[in-house]
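Supplementary Text 2. Reproducibility record for the structural model of the 737-residue chain.

All settings were left at their defaults, and a single model was retained for analysis rather than an ensemble. We include the record here because the model underlies the residue-level annotations in Supplementary Table 4.
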Amino acid sequence: MIVSAQDSTSAVISGFVKDSASGETLIGATIRVRALKLGAITNKSGFFSLHLPSGERDTVEISSLGYRTLKVPLTLGSGEERTLTILLPVQNLSGGEITVESSEERERQEPQVSRISLTPKQVEDLPKTGQADLFRILQFLPGVQTSSEISSGLYIRGGSPDQNLILLDGSVLYNPSHFFGFFSTFNPDAIKDVELIKGGFPAEYGGRLSAVLNVTDIEGDRNQTQGKVDLGLISSSATIQTPVGTGALVLAGRRTYLDAILNVTGLTQSLSLPDYYFYDLNAKLTQNPSPNDKIVISGYQGSDNLNFSGNSPASDIVLQWGNKAASAAWTHVFGSELFTNLDLSVSNFNSVFTIGSAAQPFSWTNAITDYTARASVDYFPNPENTIKAGLQATGYKTTLLIQAGNNPPNANVDLTPFYGAAYVQDEWKPAMQGYVEDPLAITGGLRVDGISSNSQLGIDPRLSARYILTPAITLKASWGIYHQYLKLATNNLVPIFDVWLPTDTTEQPERATQYVLGISTVPFENYTFEIEGYYKDMRNVVEMQPNVMSGSTLKDVFFEGNGNAYGVEFFLQKQVGRLTGWIGYTLAWTWRTFPDINNGNEFPPTYDRRNDLDIVATYHLSDRWTLGATFTYGTGQAYTQITALTPNAEDPARAISIEGDKNALRLPPYNRLDLSATYAFSFFSDKRNAEFDFDIFNAYDHRNVWISTVDQSTNPATINDIRLLPILPTFGLSVSF
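Retained model, structure tokens:
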């Protein structure tokens, strides 16, 4: 039989997929009817809607990575709309092979290119540097680079970290790092889902040129109180989940305690060490006042604090920086075909740097705060179309104050621009013929946005498509235009001084055009292999002018130029079985051209890396032992070498450095192996509720080069390499209750 999208005999099933033990909604679960080759994927709230023929007995399969597949027989009446709540049980590791469902079907159906999802378990099972860290795992994915092993900044497909949209429960984070970039702000025990879109992201996202990292925190156990405590060499954390009302409450905290140990032992004073610590606090309350309504209130606060008392008050240093974010979201289901979301959020990043006595300090204070309202709808009118539309309004407040003592400020910036955006997109699957799945799916969208400090309006069309060539081969492609209205004045070595400035009339918004083409295959059972090529053309990108301490416009602070990035990525992944992990390889080029830099000649940015190989593996040796390993090898970073010194007429004691061509030289290739072993055991419980992990960072003790300098005081001049961390063993203990 042939059924059109408007056939009155069709029916609809919709609802939520949840964890059977905790009641937590599951993101990215797959709902499918194999006989009809129809399917749907749950959204960020765990909701799905699927049109089916009526009058026939169908078997609906529901699966999610890490859960047992559930099969539900259904017979639907003509025009029936049936609401389901589907509970999936977790698939635990037993003595035999793990038989959980992989995400192959989701990846096959998903029109979105360059999309990768990670689970908290993947983050926890891999080697750590004192503690599990999300950004350090993301850096092992193809197309994702970092400036060094002591940096958590993400350079994705030739873009800088400020070109990434980083979201935590809908709130934007502007500087998600701790310990001068060594760790990210994400507490792994509070994470529910991680979605990284490396390029070609759809119209619902905007304001950035390169990528989207969307992190969702857990909503909590609705059935029983549970918690977890992690003890590590660097920091400890605790998480508790408990049922509250019609939902759950989650509280999580993390803090370093090296400062307390050094103070108690007296080493802070005897060795003249700075007093330093950081902490994170997460809170999330979820309530369901009705089956069709959910209200979520979440908050985050993280802070780094460093105090150093020098030999005199003039050398005292105080450093404080951190993020704060809060959001309130209301989702409502209008029947089986309309899902709505309203989100209010506020996010703040601030940093304070003070040196000198309290009477005559030099101080640097900067902050950015955004107040955002978003409204969106997901509409499922028929089997062929899934329509999304939304509005966003954001008010920014950016401040910068640089002042020496009681003198007039060197810089005093206080800007309050307004950003607005609207988008619409449609995922279209052609009409079914006898309910045989058409291989083509196309997502087209349009985003229109702008900022009040610049009159230019961004018109951003987006287009992506997937074509199922065979059951084992899927082709994907995307094209899109992207605008960015915030520019970042940054110091790559000390990212806490990041200053976000809105586009003004002296410089245009940054603009990128992205092209992505890929193929996804299933070469063996439980394996996926993907190849993606990309090209990104960037206009009006900026580079901070050296030694800028004042200015009234963006042109006083930044050089403006253009750039491009292109490359090809290979990604072999295994998600189920005793051995899981991936192998990724990237061949890439990134270039920048500025009229005021390098005599106007093209040059690579420091994070350009021609070759990058990453191997990530986890092996479940038994129900007690889990082994992990990561290996990375990459082309050395580009850098600029000082070629000569010339006398300084104003200060004869300090010569002027003459630099060679911009980033014309390369550091030695970077390579590192990390290892881990985790042992599960019972701790005052009849269940295995505790884990002890032992990790070795840089297992073969290869100290990579961080910075290469030239000592011109010797004859001949000598090159000195500042090297990074040596072999570093760490251990930790976690207990769940």
